[in-house]
């Protein structure tokens, strides 16, 4: 059993995030899904970015830090899109993290990686927010820093392909990614 904190996308804490947490819980993990906005989730990506602007990146990061206060040091940091960036940003403050699980976006700086840190990325190919060149550079830097990195790219799907409410949902890519996520969490 692992402890996992799962940070939401720019949309906010949507049912898809809660469903993902339930999927992980059903596999025996303890999962926290903090609301980094403190207001109802947005319906569109534009509304989500407006919420992020209103709440502010520093408040989002402070709320994410607060959510980690009572969790063990080896908690897996995970996130969807913007939440992947949040998880990656907190890695430097959580050197004993049990892993970094990134869905729909890269995250984490190479200088925050300890040798052997398990990192798994699931990303649309191509992705509108992370270009192939950016992903390749990030992947090389994380590997050079010593991360035990696995990258899964899903050709021809939309950015939030695991979110049934996003309009970009891909049942096949989603099923493949969740199988891989649960395998990642099962191997500490």
Report the helical percentage: 25-40%
Radius of gyration: 15 Å
Regarding quaternary structure, what we see is single chain
Strand order of the largest sheet: 2-1-3-4-5-6
- Count every beta strand, where a strand is a DSSP E run of 2 or more residues: 6
The low-confidence parts are: none
Form type:
globular
Strand residues, percent: 15-25%
Please trace the helix and strand order, writing H or E for each element. EHEHHEHEEHEH
Please, what is the average pLDDT? 96
Q: Please describe the biggest sheet, giving its number of strands, its sense, and whether it closes into a barrel.
A: 6 strands, parallel
- State the end-to-end distance: 9 Å
**Count of helices?**
6
- Main structural class: alpha/beta
How would you summarize what this structure contains?
Helix content is 39%, strand content 18%. With 188 residues, the chain is an alpha/beta fold.
Structure characterization notes:
This protein is of the alpha/beta class. The chain has helices spanning 15-26, 45-55, 57-68, 82-90, 132-144, 171-186; strands at residues 3-7, 30-32, 76-80, 99-103, 118-125, 148-155. A six-stranded parallel sheet has the order 2-1-3-4-5-6, sandwiched between helices. Helix 3 crosses helix 4 (82-90). It starts with a strand and ends with a helix.
